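Workshop exercise sheet. Pairs work together: one partner reads the sequence aloud, the other fills in the structure field after running the prediction. Swap roles for the next sheet.
Pair: D.N. / O.F.
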Amino acid sequence: MQAMPRFEDYPFQITPLSELDGGGYLITFPDLPGCMSDGETPEEAIEMGRDAFTAWMSVYIEEGRELPEPRSGGPASGKFNLRTPKSLHAKLARQAEAEGVSMNTLAVALLAEGLGRRESSGR
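Structure field:
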């Protein structure tokens, strides 16, 4: 039986949903057809996306299907260093604590949200 792949190895996109579509944020996985979820916030969309990812992969593994490899957009390791002003660092720390998430999870959600808005506006 195949091992469960790591959520962190697969790229995902977070897109804001219009009020007409119910608001919130949609998470999709370009490498996993039909694997998607949503949430009221980007953080919740990622949390729900993790559940959708696990369910999607579990079905493929149970059925003995070949799991898609994560696409490589280049030599991305999933890690990079970012220097911020102390004031921004403090704001991020307070916001992460208020939401009960790590600063890393919050930063990923905020970056994904910003990229989703940029992509949906055609920039």
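Discussion prompt: Helices lie at 42-62, 86-99, 103-120. What would you look at next?
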